[in-house]
## 1
Amino acid sequence: MAHVSRKRSRKAGLPPGTPMHIGEPRENAVTMTAFSYTASTLKETELSQSTDCQAVLNGLAGTHWIRVQGIHDVKPLEQLAAFYKIHPLVLEDIVNTEQRPKFEDYSDYIFVVLKQIGWQGTPPQLRIEQISLILGSHFVLSFQEHSDPIFQAVQKRLQNNKGPLRMRGVDYLIYAFVDAVVDHYFAVLEAVGDEIEELEEALISIPDQNCLHRLHRSKQDMIVLRKSIWPLREVISHLERGESSLIQDKTRVYFRDVHDHTVQIIETLETYRDMLSNMLDIYLTNLSLKLNETMKVMAMIATLFIPLTLIAGIYGMNFKHMPELEWEWGYPMVLLFMGLCAGGLMMYFRKKKWI
């Protein structure tokens, strides 16, 4: 039996700041992992429901990242929010998966919402997952709907101590997360571009109903992509040019690079959107051309038979005094005349390049 997503309407009448999961229900338990690190050390701790979360978090030293996978169970998230003194409205936004990408500065911490885009199923369909990030003075909290490995590369860099990740502050860590999400957009857009190229070739050669369905599905995907990516430009701008003391000037340079990538992604997105709009015109034009070709053939056939029908109609009249009817060569001569009329019309059509 298919799951029914929890709609925003269920929150009607509840006080502001009441956390309620909005989105597809999950059966897996919420998992939380703490990564506490310095330039030379890394400690990884799993936080289960049986773990004294308060004691573990109090014992974390240095910079740390709390990775939360699964936001459908609100209780462990409330405990985490209470420890880090996260505003109830922020927690409400975290468990509401219908948020648009946004940036909010709460002075003591920064709250960022991103959208991860991927493919699932056969045929592949877009899957949108909300990722929420909280940047504090010495910590980063990340919240994902699924146990998606999008941050796996960042985790390996922490574990293997490759690159400057451990030696820089938490603002560089959140940059690494944002950069991972944005880089994944390029892979998605490459797949979209390949689909558009195949669809364009199919529309030119065989514009059938299947092409129309694919075109409609691609236009729907483009709407989803624009809704998820367009607001990201504003988010990156705040991270790059904002006045928060939580982001160092040397890290803003990296956010500037991500901003350039975001602009490039948006430009590519708009190009694909224009191509899809033009492809609908191509589809309708091809249908009109095929209809015109069919009508032209039918018109030529009708034109060929009009004089033949006229001749057959004349000699089909039952008048008594028609000399040709008693002529020995009357029948073959009429057939010859009809053939000459048809041949003459065919030669005229070829001269006009209608056939």
## 2
Amino acid sequence: MLKKHLTLVLFSSIFCYYTAAQNKKKASAAPVANSQELNTAKGIIQFLYASYDFGNINEKGGRVSHTFKFVNTGYAPVKINDVITSCGCTQTNWISKPVSPNDTGYVNVVFDPDGRQGKLDKVITVMSDGSPKSQVLAIKGTVYPSKFNFANTYKYQYGNLAVITNILNFPAVKSTKYDSTEIGFYNMSNKQIYIYRIDAPNNILITKPTDFMPPNTGMQLKVKYYANRPIEYGPIKQEIRIHTNDDSIPTKVFYVSANVIQDFSDLSKSERKKAPKAVFNKTEIDLGNHSLFSTPVAKFTITNKGKQDLIIHKVVRTCNCLTPSLSQMIIPKGKTATLDVTYSLANMAGPDTKTIKLITNDPNQPEVTLTVKINVTE
């Protein structure tokens, strides 16, 4: 029994000695500076990377900037004493306080491209009380003229955004369908532009691929135009407002011009036979000679020779000098309505021609143009 006890004691002693030796070995392997190293220790600035490429830079797109970050991998705090640039076009700012070991700091570089077309290759020298005392950073890129590479496509400029057009035209929108187009943007600035809101009428649907436009990139907004409800036939003018963070003209206004027509594509042959039929006594009237400031009247008659009510959806004038007056907008079968067009003769002389357009529910002539001619004498 005593022998067994002595064996256990001996085994325990050996195990404890082995464990202590291993711990001592591990402790001696840890990267701890000795007293002499601490007395001579310096901070070490370790940049994550020493070069940055801006890519394409618009000469008139404003200043570009980049922040170089670093870690102090040394045993003592490190302080940046100065940052020297190779060109007055480059400005810098940096962390002013000492950076402790394992902490991070930064050097921010700002470049002004105005008047500096061509290749960009600038160096920045960082001076510190660490080791080494100086390090070199670099910025690269290409500065191109403000109209370079997209002027043939993007014709108009709204602040820092170039656009293909600021007018959207939908010449024949069927009442049961939609028409579509795109709004093309190009970010000419050297900063990211954010589209945070689009104001559009309920009948216009706009989708964007993303909220952000990086510098020197394009974006296409898809636009779908539907007929209003209740349907308004004929020419319609509307607006789209696109709100951005562009510090030059933040709100971009686009003008929408549409012409909504009734869709007769689903009518059968029998339905077409029963449809209304508009018959005009004349489609052109020459009022002859009239003196300035007089108000002659052209008289048209419209007869419905179909089997259903003829509806005049809208009467569209091409000039404020014309004043149309229709006796009734709904003409029963076999009945006739009159359209009086008063011509106000002011600020004009000599021969003149103006038109009136009628939007109807006659499937064979949904749009009818009436012409008025006149010769204005003194």
## 3
Amino acid sequence: MSSLPASVRSAAEPAFHVTDAVVTLRDEGAIPSAIDALVRLAVFGDEPEREWARWVIWEGARAVGTFSASIHDVYMARGRGEIPPVTVPAMNIRGPSYDTMRAIFRTARAMDGGAFILEIARSEIAYTEQRPAEYVAVALAAALREGYRGPVFIQGDHFQVNAKKYKVDAAAEVLAVKLLATEAIAAGFYNIDLDTSTLVELAHPTLDAQQRLNFEVGVELTRHVRALEPAGVTISLGGEIGEVGTENSTVAELEAFMGGYVRSLQAQAPGMIGLSKISVQSGTSHGGVVLPDGSIADVALDFKTLEDLSRVSRERYGLAGAVQHGASTLPDGAFHHFPTTETAEIHLATGFQNMLYDLLPEVLREEIYAWLTVNAGEERKAGDSDEQFFYKTRKKAFGPFKRALWDLPADLKARIAAAYDAKFAFLFEQLAVRGTGPAVRRLVTGPMVPRLAPGRASAIEAAPDDAEAGE
């Protein structure tokens, strides 16, 4: 068993008293400087430093009442109409994650908002080089750094079954998603979007037959997740009925999926808790549709579809409502419609990435584009302009350029932080997140799951990388 590295002990003090088994609070006022040092060790340290720094962050957060949690009870209350309509922003943070998450927690504190999610998709975990244990540590560190207290919702987005791989070897592909869920839950992901919508087979004559693999594999993954829950935690699970970027979903499809899912789950595991939300397609695509000049095409978002699906999912199945993916590149004037249509959650990613690239120094941006030309050239389609190619592939640079993005000059970091502060404040206002903190803290009081020090528990094993599945 490795002992606590001196570098981690030095970074943690004087904020925390750390032994090889326990972390206690020493001086709350010293947390900011301690966390700045600890989070760098958690991301860039050697293996013992990373493991111990992540443990100190997790246990240090617990010591002040900040903890990774499930939003399940909030969503169930929303489904029952016990809290006012709020559209929870689920934000995919690709990088530089610590500074970006700090802006989110600053906004949450300023607006007393608690209903928001930090998430990362199966594909993003690979190409941003952020395994779940790292992502959780950075999220909790950002919360601590900004003085945020209470539950932190961290989500696995698009834990998706790859349809092509499923056709080749169904068992192996489902196992890959199970392994990722196992890794994520051990790391502290207590919210997971199970995406088996890729298995919908539209060639079948009935909706039940079209959705059958979707709900059957969804139930199999649900049972796997429920078997791994820490004591007292009900992981919030999402399902999906329409693959984002395809035809808009319908109420009949929702009923076919949910009817089959509920029927199958209760037959296999009577009394087991199922989903808390359902993702649908209503006119968007991940990242938006980029035009040859690099601009984003207008989106005809069907808010009536969202409203109808949200209402049916609440009234018939007790869910929080429908989830909208691919929303970050929508025009600013669209966002206030989501709470009025009682959309439960929207997923935001590419818009934040676009803001960062717009603010990067030209020299660094050109270095990244040169790297993409060599390392992502096979993704360039015939007829793609440079603007289209770089727009679609530049997310792949977050992993290789992670340290460079973390180490941007202080003055540039300040400009990016100001831009993000304004953006998150706008989104929280439009989505009715302001003032949700009290309800969230009332509904989600724990448990604050303890974690054994490195060497006292089995290590978290990483699932196989798969940068092709999900966005």
## 4
Amino acid sequence: MTELFKLTSVSEAWKAFRDNISLNGPAEEQVPVLDSLGRVLSRDIVSGVDVPGFTRSTMDGYAVRAADTFGASEAMPAMLEVSGEVMMGEEAGSCLEPGHAVKISTGGMLPEGADAVVMVEYTEELDSQTILVVRPVAPGENVVQKGEDISEGQVLVKVGTVIRPQEMGALAGIGITSCNVVRRPLVGILSTGDEVVAPDREPGPGQIRDINSYAISGLVAEAGGQAVNYGIIRDDFTRLEETVKKAVAETDIVVVSGGSSVGTRDVTSRVLDSIGKPGVLVHGVSVKPGKPTILGVVNNKPVLGLPGHPASAMVLADIFLVPLVRAMLGLGFTSPERRTVRAVIGRNMASTSGRLDYIRVALKGESGELRAEPVLGKSGLITTMVKADGVVIIPMAKEGIEAGEEIEVILF
């Protein structure tokens, strides 16, 4: 008789993982900045230039010496001689003399001697060579100083930053077109089961298309990793052993979908114990959906045996696989920051004490409040994840939530 797995809490499962994995320093690679979105920077970016590289105007108007405008008003304007114009994209001319002004456009370079810009709205043309200034400006007004945005020698973007569009723009602004980033962890993905066929095949009687490889590949990419698909493996010990060995040798994390329960044909745990040490660390996690889960380490490579049911596989991949990918990116064993909203649960939901329950919910506005309606269905139904906007986690110490209770929803 097959011995049933022993349920382990999520925190205990994580401890078993961390105690048996040694993470080496992340490998890096150089990529074009245009391809760097979402990548983790592996070296500080230090600016070699000032940005802007010259003092520039932020308004259309006239570059002036601020002192020449002090006390100016509509009743008693300051009179200045116009001694030229700064054209866009060109170097400013000679030094601005006291009592003079130079016409300038937004972004134009201030001439030497000028320290402010009078907006065109606060000037009047007396003739082609003279303007009246009807409002004073202070030194530095309507001006961006050289190096005010970014200064030479400044650490612009720190190591460990997940690059966003704004960082891409900042790098371009200092003339950097490629950067060093952490190499994406490779995640080998296998689906197991005699009943599983590729999505492009017509399932026969008793067969189903492979859902999990695609859903887990999406989670891996979203977390910053790169999925490597090893195909569908039948319920055969030798074939699965060969494929898992290959995946362990070629990738950083291995995920086996299916074959984690205690049925007589499930061989994943036996395979892990046969190919390396320490083998299976955890078989069974106190989470619903998803308790028949295997966590193991083979030759310092994490191996996860996820349930075959799609909703269960996605929940457990989010709990264990996503933080593993992030740890290999140098971001620590953490889940990514997710947006959350407060909502009112629409119905009673019971839970078993001593187990984490992940309740899929759909959100809807009703009577001026946000309501979270549980998306009911078995863990084998992928549509429960498609219909859901997020999840509510019922802690281990709680025995459920009551209709009308305010809860926090973690958005997908």
